[in-house]
Amino acid sequence: MTTTTMQPTEGIILSTGVYDLLKDQIRRRKLSKFNEAKLERELKSATQVLRRDLPADVVTADTRVTVKDLESGAETTYKLVGPEKARRKNNTMSILSPIAVAMLGYSAGSQVQWEMEDGIRNYQIVEVAPL
Question: What positions does the domain Transcription elongation factor GreA/GreB C-terminal occupy (predicted)?
Fold first, then answer.
């Protein structure tokens, strides 16, 4: 006999507010066709939770995320905040920036694929921590 956990095995986990922001990005046609189709698929299977119920290792607003570009091997750390709080002088980035939209709802260890200005890129989320 096997037991299963209640955590979703597929799909991203988003707070209701972030889910609504991403739906708005699709409505406003702010994404490439590749990214729009990918995000629509992800949102269909997404689990929506209250912000306080998000697991600590899920990428959302007010998190520090270290991501590895799987082609170059380069690691970069981003401080993700809501669009209204993003300030270059504070070294913070909006959750609606291309790299952030690609990672929202995923947890540490996940691999994501997203179309950037220089083509489709593959990333691995190395670490997620609260700001």
Answer: 55-129
Q: What are phi and psi for residue 96, nearest 5 degrees?
A: -95, 5
Token pair 């889910």 in the structure block, residue: 19
Q: Which amino acid is at 84?
A: E
Please give the distance of CA 86 from its chain centroid, rounded to a whole number: 16
Is there a contact between 61 and 80 (Cβ–Cβ < 8 Å)?
yes
| DSSP letters for 96-130 | TSHHHHHHTT-BTT-EEEEEETTEEEEEEEEEEEE
Q: In this structure, are strands 47-49 and 13-15 parallel, antiparallel, or unpaired?
A: parallel
> Does 3.10.50.30 match the CATH number of domain 13-130?
yes
Rounded to whole angstroms, the Cα distance separating 111 from 131 reads: 22
Summarize pLDDT for 109-126 with one digit per residue, the tens.
999 999 999 999 999 999
pLDDT digits (tens, 9 = 90+) for 9-65: 468 999 999 999 999 999 998 899 999 999 999 999 999 999 999 999 999 999 999
Residue 118 backbone dihedrals phi, psi, to 5 degrees: -100, 15
CA atoms within 13 A on the CB side of 80: 27
